[in-house]
């Protein structure tokens, strides 16, 4: 009986695994968001602690001395130190774009998503927020906080992120970090309040524009994010007893609207589960 000949094909070492490369870029992006965001937070709070140096007490610390700089000097390293918070802030946002782009590629590769598909995606919404903060609106740690929390969660489960059969583990991770997800939602609401105050106090010329754009993005969150819906519903419920009776009906209408969005999201998930 003739023996069979086995042909062994050696893998080309020069041919890189595209999935491994994507995972590396994704990991680097989330690491940038978390590390540079944490470093920026340190500089931010250091700057806040020295508020009495760059704010005028004659104006109850509401007026900023525009020409004041904590780091003085004209040498090259003084310039780098002065620009380091801005650089750290933007590098953290670049990390959001990097990891988010890989996620979008993984989700929509070979497909033709509609605008509805994109706008309903939490990843796309996060990238819209990051783009907004990258282009303007001032730099604050609470604007980076939602991205940092999400990056932390993703890095905790990075071994299963690119595994298509790890849906159960993904759900378990989500339930284990449900408090962090609600913290993300609370921070998004805090950003709305901060932008409203910046607009009323006329902190800068772009505050009102940023508020309008951010409210548009947050409206998407309320329509498609269950955590944003639940968190806002919790906050509204705390004020139930303080609402005057004549406005009670309008107040309940707002709550019913959010609750209806939650139910609509659950129905969409059920439909996706049946067609999967």
From TrEMBL:
Protein's membrane topology: Multi-pass membrane protein
InterPro entries listed in its UniProt record: PER33/POM33_regulator (IPR051645)
Higher taxonomy: Eukaryota, Fungi, Dikarya, Ascomycota, Saccharomycotina
Record GO cellular component, one term: membrane
Compartments, as annotated in UniProt: Membrane
Signal peptide as annotated in the record: none
Protein name according to UniProt: Uncharacterized protein
Any one GO BP annotation for this protein: endoplasmic reticulum tubular network organization
This protein's UniProt keywords: Membrane, Transmembrane, Transmembrane helix
Gene that encodes the chain: NDAI0D03910
Domain of life the protein comes from: Eukaryota
TM ranges: 24-52, 128-155, 176-197, 209-236
This protein's record includes keyword Transmembrane: yes
């Amino acid at each position: 009986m003739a023996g069979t000949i086995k042909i062994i094909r050696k893998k080309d070492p020069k041919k890189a695994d595209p999935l491994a490369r994507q995972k590396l870029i994704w990991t680097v992006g989330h690491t940038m968001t978390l590390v540079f965001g944490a470093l920026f937070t340190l500089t931010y709070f250091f700057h806040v602690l020295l508020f009495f140096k760059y704010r005028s007490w004659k104006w109850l610390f509401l007026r900023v001395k525009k020409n004041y700089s904590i780091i003085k000097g004209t040498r090259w390293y003084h310039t780098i130190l002065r620009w380091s918070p801005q650089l750290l802030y933007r590098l953290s946002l670049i990390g959001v774009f990097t990891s988010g782009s890989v996620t979008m590629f993984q989700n929509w590769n070979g497909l033709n998503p509609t605008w509805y598909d994109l706008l309903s995606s939490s990843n796309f919404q996060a990238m819209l927020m990051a783009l907004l903060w990258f282009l303007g609106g001032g730099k604050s740690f609470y604007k980076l906080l939602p991205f940092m929390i999400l990056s932390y969660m993703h890095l905790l489960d990075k071994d299963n992120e690119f595994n298509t059969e790890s849906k159960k583990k993904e759900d378990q991770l989500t339930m284990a970090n449900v408090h962090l997800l609600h913290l993300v939602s609370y921070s998004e609401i805090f950003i709305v309040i901060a932008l409203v105050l910046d607009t009323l106090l006329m902190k800068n010329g772009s505050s009102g524009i940023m508020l309008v754009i951010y409210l548009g993005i947050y409206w998407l969150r309320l329509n498609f994010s269950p955590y944003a819906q639940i968190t806002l519903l919790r906050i509204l419920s705390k004020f139930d007893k303080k609402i005057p009776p004549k406005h009670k009906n309008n107040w309940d209408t707002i709550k019913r609207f959010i609750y209806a969005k939650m139910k609509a999201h659950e129905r969409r998930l059920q439909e996706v589960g049946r067609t999967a």
